Amino acid sequence: MEALPADLDLAFLVTSLVKIVGLTFMVILPMVAYSVYAERRFSAVIQDRVGPNRVGVPLTLFGFKKDWQLLGIGGLLQPMADGLKFILKEDFTPRSVRTFYYWLAPCLTMVPALLTCAVLPFGSELDFGFLGLNQPVKAVIADLGVGPLYTFAIASLGVYGIVLAGWASNSKYPFLGGIRSSAQMISYEISLGLSVIPVFMVFGELNLPDIASFQDRNGWLILPLWGEGLSIGRWVLWVPMLISFLIFTVAMFAETNRLPFDLAECETELVGGYHTEYSSMKFALFFLGEYAAMIIGSGLAVTLFLGGWSIPFGPVLGLGHVPGETPLWLGLLHIGCFLAKVVGFILFFILIRWSLPRFRFDQLMKFGWLFLFEAALANVLLTAALMVWFPVK
Amino acid sequence: MAFIEVKRPKLAWHEKAFLSTLFKGLRITLSHAWRTFRQIAGGKPKVTMEYPEQKWDSNLPEYYRGAPALVTDEQGRERCVSCQLCEFICPPKAIRITPGEIPNDDPWAKVEKRPREFEIDMIRCIYCGMCEEVCPEQAIYLRKDYAITGLSRAEMVHDKKRLYEIGGQRIGLVNKWNELK
After folding, report:
1. Would residue A1 count as lying in a domain?
2. Nearest to A347 by CA among A30, A45, A35
3. How confident is the model at residue B181 (pLDDT cuts 50, 70, 90)?
4. Given the DSSP bridges, would you call strands B95-101 and A137-138 parallel, antiparallel or unpaired?
5. In angstroms, what separates the C-alpha of A42 from chain B's closest C-alpha?
6. Backbone CA torsion sign across A7, A12, A17, A20
7. pLDDT tens digit sequence for A356-389
8. Which chain B positions have a beta carbon within 8 Å of A246's beta carbon?
9. Interstrand relation of B68-70 and B157-158 (parallel, antiparallel or unpaired)
């Protein structure tokens, strides 16, 4: 590619670097912090409480009468206070742990979660013509042809973090949590992988940016309301796609260890599960990794089933993506649309967490192996059979 | 006694499979969320008292057990005779009394003893009220002060002066055991 030393494409390098730093550190990490805040606030209103509403810009430190509350909601700077608290806490390492793996585990949770965002198309394209770039910049870090495979491959590394944490802690509760979690994640990864096969059969490709722009032109996968999505074939295939979406969402909940599948940490039984023995920033890394995985999972679900960055009825309204001729403001609007969808999905995650009780472990395994796995497999066959009569392209 | 047999509810298939019940649950949580959100956005949450701004002091019951304090009687005499019963009964050993003699030229010389120093460590105090119950002179009472704060451990130890400040004067014989009060 361009990375050859002879004709090193400086623009490509700089834009990639900006995208990597911008997406991971300016978007994902703040989103992680604020989804923790959203979780606390949302759970509070569900339970008829108020939630954290105090932390604002601490003007009282400089002699003002009141702290400045952003946007009038209050508590919007709570994530910063939480982060600061994690840094100031004592980083305690129990004497009985395997130090190397004990240190490795939090990193192995956090790093894969952040790596997977490389292939997510977070927007259509950004036209930086006024900066002298003759090519519009694609709003994805790595335009890979094997996007979802890469995501699943990296995301399944996340289980090592939990298993190592459970084992290296040398303590009962983390051990049980680690065992449960590894069994759970391996079981549900199969359903997760099988549930997206029908999707790729419909699209006929594995390139996530192309999948997103196809949905922009022809209607979202589970909302085919414009373009070629209004054909009979798409609406017949809508049924297996909806099944795919449901299985994918359930498996995603299990993969990210969210309630009702949070048997890896269930506070009421295992104290804290695999991260019982961790404190300070190492605990924060587990926490961040979990929420980052949730965000990336939501991003993947949005890209595959809900049209990614595409604005509903975009081509009809003239807000669709035309390769090479999308103005900058529309590109930014697409990014905003993608983030809005992801935020909506995260709120759905939170709502489910505070509505459903936890499964028992045998129920979890039974559900995964005896229902979800078979349903996903049958769905693949169903889609294949339907596609004989109703080919998409 | 009547024997009531509680039957398990018969669930339809969609209820057993968590299909309709899932949406029912989501509706309940969402309706609660929306209601509380509107209350918060309107500025008056009905369920939570936001503490430093709103206080429940006026609703404190008569029997509320706050910070223990020493009281004087109507003539300004310290009621405490430093018998040290409260010190002995105190479960977390928060009370420390240094007894002192009342000099002979004092008008209350017949009482013979009073505390030279009386300290209650409010970090230790568990507000159980046993000191009040055991006191034969009705000299120590649990008042309604509950926000006891300090920036250091030393600040959290209430000395005699502070205890009388909180306690103030208590007039008349308080009939602790009289049910009419």
Report:
1. no
2. A35
3. very low
4. unpaired
5. 7
6. negative
7. 888 888 888 888 888 889 999 999 998 888 888 8
8. none
9. unpaired
Per-residue pLDDT tens for B42-98?
777 777 787 887 888 888 888 889 889 998 877 778 888 888 999 999 999 999 999
Q: Which helix (H) or strand (E) holds B15?
A: helix B13-16
Q: What is the ipTM of this complex?
A: 0.73
Residues β-bridged to residue B78: B72
Task: Give the number of domains in chain A.
Answer: 1
Give how far A268 is from chain B: nearest CA, Å. 21
The answer, yes or no, to whether residue A328 has pLDDT greater than 80, is: no
pLDDT at B99 exceeding the cut of 80: yes
Whether A64 is covered by a domain: the verdict is no
For the stretch B159-165, contacts whose Cβ atoms lie closer than 8 Å and that sit 24 or more positions apart, written own/partner, are: B159/B117, B159/B118, B159/B119, B160/B70, B160/B115, B160/B117, B160/B118, B160/B119, B163/B68, B163/B69, B163/B70, B163/B118, B163/B120, B164/B69, B164/B70, B164/B71, B164/B72, B164/B78, B165/B69
Instruction: State how far the Cα of B40 lies from the Cα of B60, in Å rounded to an integer.
Output: 26
Contact A184, A195 (CB under 8 A): no
Length of chain B: 181
B49 at interface of A, judged by CB pairs closer than 8 A:
no
* Measured distance CA(A336)–CA(A27) in Å, rounded: 11
| Residue B44 in tokens | 């008056």
Which of A42, A50, A355 shows the shortest C-beta gap to B45? A50
Distance CA(B31)–CA(B37), nearest Å, equals 10
What count of CB pairs under 8 Å joins A to B? Answer: 40
Counting every residue written for chain A, the total comes to 393
What letter would DSSP give residue A156?
A: T
Residue A123 within a domain: yes
Taking the C-alpha atoms of residue A311 and residue B18, their distance in angstroms, rounded to an integer, is: 33
Query: Which pair of tokens denotes residue B84?
Result: 């040290």
Per-residue pLDDT, B43: 72
H helices of chain A, where?
A: 10-21, 29-46, 78-88, 99-115, 147-155, 158-168, 172-203, 208-218, 232-255, 267-270, 280-305, 314-317, 328-353, 361-366, 373-389
pLDDT tens column, A203-237 = 888 888 888 888 887 778 787 777 776 777 777 78
Residue A207 structure tokens:
């390139």
Q: Mind listing the domains of chain B with CATH numbers? A: 67-173 (3.30.70.3270)
Tokens encoding A148: 């979802």
Is residue A27 scored above 90 in pLDDT? no
Compute, in degrees rounded to 10, the torsion defined by CA atoms B60, B62, B63, B69.
Answer: 90
Task: Tell me whether residues A50 and B26 touch, CB distance under 8 A.
Answer: no
Give, as one character, the DSSP assignment of residue A130: G
H/E element, B87: helix B85-89
pTM of the model: 0.79
Structural domain harbouring A170: 6-47+77-389
Contacts of A354 in chain B (CB under 8 A): 29
* Residue A349 backbone phi and psi in degrees, to 5: -55, -50
Residue A174, in any domain of the structure: yes
Is residue B114 within a helix (H) or strand (E), and if so which, with residue range?
Answer: strand B113-121
